[in-house]
Every structure is written in structure tokens, then in C-alpha cells.
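The authors assume throughout that readers already know how a fold can be written as C-alpha cells. For illustration, here is how one protein appears when written out as sequence plus C-alpha cells:
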Amino acid sequence: MRILYTVNVGIAMQYFNSIIKELVDEGHTVDIVANEAPSRVADFYRDIGCRVYPVSWTRSPVDPGNIAAIRELKKIIHNGNYDIVHCHTPVAAVCTRLVCRPLRKDGMKVIYTAHGFHFYNGAPLKNWLLFYPVEKLCAHWTDVLVTINKEDHERAKRKLKVESILYVPGMGVDVKRFSDTVVDRTMKRKELGIPEDAFLLLSVGELNTNKNHRIVIRALGELKDSNIHYMIAGQGALRDALPELARECGVEKQVHILGQREDIAELNKTADVNVFPSLREGFGLAAIEGMAAGLPLICADNRGTREYADSDNSIVCRADDVKAFANAISALNKDPALRRKLGEHGQETAKRFDTGKVNPLLHELYK
């Protein structure tokens, strides 16, 4: 088969290493379309033989530059003779389905994985007015809609007319890699500039408003414990704003912005707690990666975290409740037994979302 993956930005391809490597190993051709201006597609894909096509679309659904991107994509798809086009992320998915619409009659199949509808329970009215009508229209040009959480799955069945709707539990995590990684915590902390005896929190995710790192920084300000440190792995628009907030809260020496990292498994083994405070998530792989590493989880309540977070493996807080996050951090700091209990249950939870369980569902879908 000839398969094309389309995503908004290159960094989004980090979620598909495992399934695409398996497809290539089986002899299928897999190509990739992404905007590489903000972030390149990892060289891993080029190394295994995938062709990577850059396009100029953006994340904004109203950016007129997306019109040019549609023209670019049309050339790629018409020349590629693809059997399957699998689109991800909202803007890329809309552009892709517009281009593929007339080709479906010739046998091309279009799959869309919704990584979290913007029209979710409690979403702002503007999200429903903008994203829902577009998705409702594009559903007519979609052969299979893949949802990764149960709330989106139920909504899709009720609201969208798609030929087939498939629920897949997340995007798959290599649980063994995160559980079996060995790291010298003392040396790693020294490399990161973090005291050896610090109680260390970790968040992994883009530095944007939705990821809600601010709530954790404010919680540190409430706790006033200089031995609690917080490292954030990611890049994004709030790169300068988060350190400024840390200064305002008096915890600037405790907050460490690490930038984009390739050693996430090692970072998880270096930390004591995984914190996942997002306002909105379709699923949230970073939380599962932390669980796989054996870390207890502190997370915000949203439709993504409801897929896996419960009282056995996590402390769940309201996303805007600084006090709740502060209390959760304090409780885990003071109680090693609680950390162990949550971490052990979390490792069992993570196994449900291993690539060994998720990838076969995608292989069957492609067949």
C-alpha cells in the first residue's frame, strides 16, 4: 500500500514512530506532509525511507495562507497515487479532505484521527460555531473517523455522518522503553542544574496556555518550599512568560524550562512526580509515558485524562484550582508510600495503552 500521513507541524509526527516503522518494515510506502517551518519532521522518518513534503499551512483555521497550502497538497496527492491518506490535526485534516474529496470515487480511502475535537463538553461557544460545522461538513468526505477518547467517540456517533467511526485507546506508548530506561539520577540532575536531593516535578508539553504550566508554578509559589523543583520539557509561545511568572511567584530558581528534548524517558526516571495540568486534552501521551516510568501522576480533570486517571494511580485536580495542585504536590512530597502506590498502579494502567495493543488496531484498519 501507499499511505500518506498529513499533520499540521513536523513535531506532531513524534506520535507515529512505531506504527510507521512497522508499516515500512512490512513493505508499505509511507510519506509525510507537514509544515516544517516551526518544527522539522524527525530525521528518523527520512532514515527509514519516508519522503517528507513541506507545506505552508498554519494552525489557524482562518489563515488565508492555508489556501496556498491546499494547492501544494493537491500536487503532492495527485502525483503520489496513494491508496490511503491518513490525516491528523484540525487544519491539516480539513485541507486534506478537501483535496481528497474528488479522488475517493477512484478508490482512495481517507482516514481522520481526531486528537480531540475542539467542540467538547464545556467548550467556548465560538468553538462550536467555528469547528463543529466544518467537521460536520468534512465528515461526508471521511471514510473512517478515528477517535482516541470516549467523549469524542460518543459525540461523533451522535453528531457526525461518517461511514465508519473507530475508537482507538490513545496513540500508543512504548511502555517497555519508559519502564526499562535506566539513568543515573545524580548525574542527570547535575546535568540539568537541579539539586540531587530536590523533590522534582516533570511536565512534558508545548509551552502554551492550554498546557496550563502556570497553575503548577503558582502552586509552587503557594507552597514556599525551595526544595521542590519543576522542570518543563517543551517549546512554544510562553517560553519567556513562564520564567517571568516564576519570578513573580518567587520560585524562579525552582523552575527549569528545558526546551524540546529527545531524552523524555530519562527525564521521567529522573523526576519524582509527573504533572499533567492541561485545560483540554484529547488524550495526553505524556501522562501515560510518566505512568509507564512508574511515576505518580497529578493531573487536571478533562476528557483525555478521564481515559486513564483515577484514585488508584493519580491525584486529579480541577484545572484552575491552585490550592488543589499545591495540596497534591505537598501530599506526594511528604508521603513516599503514596508515591509508590500511585506509581505501581500507574504502570499497570499504562499497559492498556501500549503500542502492542494500539498498533494492531491501526494495521487492521489499513487492511
